[in-house]
């Protein structure tokens, strides 16, 4: 997995906030300052204590640099052993830190908190991606992210083999039930968006085949099928594809709501393009990572 699109500005902001929480206004680790001489050096390794998919590796260097800047110290040297997107086994060394031990231990918890969280998202996403293999369907994330961590969590989804649906309310219009009610119907809602934002992608949430056709007639070419059974979804996909074929139109179709890993392949086989799963970011357990002095 290339880190070319790692969201470094967002990562720097998160690192700064995390270190504010951990080191306080005086940038102080009272335990390490009291027990470790300023000139003592050593080696620490970030190690996987459980299997998982790595995400967030570039954060390590950012944390080390920020700790050094706050304390006037010298950042430890860093040897990253595994790239983001790598499947880790228990005992694998993610990175080795060599230098002032105070700096290493002051950085430890911030490094582990961020890496464990992002790797958990990547690991969960990989399970969905594997479950959908061969179906032609790709797993998507949602806006159900941890406040302040959206760019990083969506990066972790990409590390796990998923795709980002939209970054926020600003880049894709999604017409849901409340918009239909407020605007006076799906047609009115679609027309209002097209008039105000002519270039934005417009997706319409539907729960029945009839609603799907209504959305297509209104102008949408992106359907989000919400909480449908496999049979209803297949019927809706077939109807939407037939509608598009008659007009030479390409239709994108997404499924969402109530999906589990156990039924992912069944839903993926209905012919949908996308499957959005909020749990990728709101319910992924962390990957257990540790920093051990060696």
Overall radius of gyration: 23 Å
Mean pLDDT: 96
Summed up, the domain count is 2
CATH classification, class level of the largest domain = Alpha Beta
**N-end to C-end Cα span:** 28 Å
Largest sheet: 6 strands, parallel
Q: Estimate percent helicity.
A: 40-55%
Structural class: alpha/beta
CATH topology of the largest domain: TIM Barrel
Kindly report the spatial arrangement of strands forming the biggest sheet.
6-11-10-9-8-7
CATH homologous superfamily caption of the largest domain: Aldolase class I
Q: Per DSSP, what share of the residues sits in E-state strands of 2 or more residues?
A: 15-25%
- Low-confidence segments: none
| CATH architecture descriptor text of the largest domain | Alpha-Beta Barrel
DSSP E strands, number: 12
- Give the topology string: H per helix, E per strand: HHEEHEEEHEHEHHEHEHEHEHE
Could you characterize the architecture of this molecule?
The strands form three sheets. The chain has a six-stranded parallel sheet with strand order 6-11-10-9-8-7. Strands 3-5-1-12 form a four-stranded antiparallel sheet, covered by helices on one side. It has a two-stranded antiparallel ribbon with strand order 2-4. The protein is α/β, with parallel strands linked by helices and 294 residues long. Helix 8 (209-218) links the parallel strand 8 and strand 9. It contains eleven helices and twelve strands. The protein has helices at residues 8-23, 30-35, 59-71, 101-131, 150-159, 177-183, 186-196, 209-218, 230-247, 264-268, 279-282; strands spanning 41-48, 52-53, 77-80, 87-88, 93-100, 138-140, 172-175, 201-206, 222-226, 252-256, 274-276, 289-293. It has two domains: 8-122 and 285-293, Quinolinate phosphoribosyl transferase, N-terminal domain (Aldehyde Oxidoreductase, domain 3); 130-282, Aldolase class I (TIM Barrel), CATH 3.20.20. The model has no long low-confidence stretch (mean pLDDT 96). Pathway: Cofactor biosynthesis; NAD(+) biosynthesis; nicotinate D-ribonucleotide from quinolinate: step 1/1. Involved in the catabolism of quinolinic acid (QA). Residues 121-292 form the Quinolinate phosphoribosyl transferase C-terminal domain. Keywords: Glycosyltransferase, Pyridine nucleotide biosynthesis, Transferase.
């Amino acid at each position: 997995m290339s880190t070319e699109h790692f969201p470094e500005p967002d990562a720097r902001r998160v690192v700064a906030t995390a270190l504010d929480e951990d080191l306080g206004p005086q940038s102080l680790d009272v335990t390490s300052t009291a027990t470790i001489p300023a000139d003592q050096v050593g080696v620490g390794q970030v190690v996987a204590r459980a299997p998982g998919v790595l995400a967030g590796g570039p954060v390590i260097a950012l944390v080390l640099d920020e700790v050094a800047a706050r304390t006037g110290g010298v950042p430890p040297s860093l040897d990253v052993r595994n790239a983001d997107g790598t499947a880790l086994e228990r005992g694998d060394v993610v990175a080795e830190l060599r230098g002032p031990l105070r700096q290493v231990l002051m950085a430890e918890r911030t490094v582990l908190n961020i890496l464990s969280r992002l790797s958990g998202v990547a690991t969960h996403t990989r399970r969905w991606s594997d479950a959908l293999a061969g179906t032609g369907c790709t797993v998507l994330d949602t806006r159900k992210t941890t406040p302040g961590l959206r760019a990083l969590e969506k990066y972790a989804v990409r590390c796990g083999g998923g795709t980002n649906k939209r970054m926020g309310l600003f880049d894709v219009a999604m017409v849901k039930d409340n918009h239909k009610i407020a605007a006076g119907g799906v047609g009115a809602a679609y027309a209002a968006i097209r008039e105000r934002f002519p270039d934005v992608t417009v997706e319409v949430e539907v729960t029945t085949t009839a609603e799907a056709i209504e959305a297509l007639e209104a102008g949408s070419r992106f359907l989000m099928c919400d909480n449908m059974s496999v049979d209803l979804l297949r019927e809706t996909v077939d109807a939407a594809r037939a509608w598009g074929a008659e007009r030479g139109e390409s239709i994108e179709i997404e499924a969402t709501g109530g999906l589990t890993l156990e039924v992912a392949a069944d839903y993926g086989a209905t012919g949908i393009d996308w499957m959005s799963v909020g749990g990728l970011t709101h319910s992924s357990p962390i990957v257990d990572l540790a920093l051990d002095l060696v």
